[in-house]
Amino acid sequence: MHATERETLILEAMGKTGFVSYRDLEARLDASPATIRRDLARLEAQGKIVRVHGGAKWPTADEPPPSLRLSGTPFDQSITLNLAAKQAIGRAAAALVEPAEGIMIDGGTTTLQMCPHLAGRDCQVLTNSLHIVNALLPQEGTRILLPSGTLFREQNIVLAPAGEDSMPRFHAPKLFMGAAAIGSQGIMQADAVLVSAERRLIDRAEKVIVLADSSKFQSSSGAIVCGLDEIDVLVTDQGITQETARSIKDADIELILAQ
Amino acid sequence: MHATERETLILEAMGKTGFVSYRDLEARLDASPATIRRDLARLEAQGKIVRVHGGAKWPTADEPPPSLRLSGTPFDQSITLNLAAKQAIGRAAAALVEPAEGIMIDGGTTTLQMCPHLAGRDCQVLTNSLHIVNALLPQEGTRILLPSGTLFREQNIVLAPAGEDSMPRFHAPKLFMGAAAIGSQGIMQADAVLVSAERRLIDRAEKVIVLADSSKFQSSSGAIVCGLDEIDVLVTDQGITQETARSIKDADIELILAQ
DNA sequence: TATAAAACAATCAAACACGATCATATGCAA
DNA sequence: TTGCATATGATCGTGTTTGATTGTTTTATA
Description:
homodimer; alpha/beta; seven-stranded parallel beta sheet; DNA-binding
């Protein structure tokens, strides 16, 4: 029996129920477990099915085939890092948003945690991060605006060529921004691409609000985005030392400790 | 019986009454109490049901039938419709793309199927559809460009206010476009929002290539996007009747039959 | 309120499914 | 035929799913 025959049989077996068990396939196809798994893997890669433990089913909205899934690898890993702190910070930051306000949100795993708490505020959000867009997508009331430009994969952000005005005539009272590290020099990002993207957002905002969990104060490597003097508010968690807290306040930054 | 099957059965059992008792499930599903509870817990975590003592019910009072929730947006439902035909059409259309060419792809479930076949062509793609963006994301070599604007949820497209130039100075030799229906009046879309989005793309393209499976020729309802005279190439499947094929050719459109 | 019955959550061991790796077989071209 | 690429099969360690058991919480009824 050839691969194409088995593929046909598999899709056929799923029929109208939309599911075949691995056992079922083992009985129908005269092939070894390994081969069956390989067939399923191939069909999934083609987007024709979605594998589940013990079998396979038709792709649905909840579980789109992997070809349609959004996943930045380093990003996904970083999401779970200090998750609890990030969630608390996200909640506290979202509380700063007035109903029906227009805001800007920079991409990042911490700012991402704001999104669930924006539901029902009917605000407008300008962002260049597709991760943020995806997170806001289910919230009916939230209006999402995007700048034009090229998509940068590593960071999943949209960025226009230098000098080009990519924002749809937008100015916002508040910008929410993440950071890879914070030190006395200011806030830093790991990738230089992020820096130029964030500089543009900063220029359009009246108030810059930085979200960073306390671990970000320990490292200080990366490209400098802006000095502490450009920051208006800093939202972080309880893990911050008294010393850093004082230096933040000395820089005339409003400090918010989440949770 | 596998987890996926049980989930389907549970949601089915809730049917229109919007409630299943635990007892009922115990009778229907051939599974232990522990497994049933686990299934319910999982479904609740996914937001598909709400557990109550002795059973489960639909999420909220004002709740639309969860069959919607299950299969998501109309877009997701439509993805698997005529999937084989759409995949064949997508492959044939992708073959029209020259290596390193800059093209535009309109949103739609048929154009979506082009994306897997664009891998390795190193082309630039301008699209206003986030579905297309997501599909192209894993392809390292493909450069993705986005226009600025507001996100329209039903269609998942980005659209700028009328009169505003939202495209990053872009002009392309080819536009790939889907359709809800095709008739002698031209091609039609279900939503008027799509029409204005597509009009802008058409104005920037030298050649308009329409992707539509043969079922699209049977209906003819919707907002008219453009007349047949504006179309240069039509890619469809073998299911088209000889009569329609002739009328297409009479309109001076190049006809490509996939697979 | 007191009591029994049902539903529930947590835990554990066994069965099963899975991916990775290596070995074998099959097909195809030189 | 030989050499090579691809497809298939077998094995093993790991992770997931499942049903049984236990003890706790909730509901119904006297």
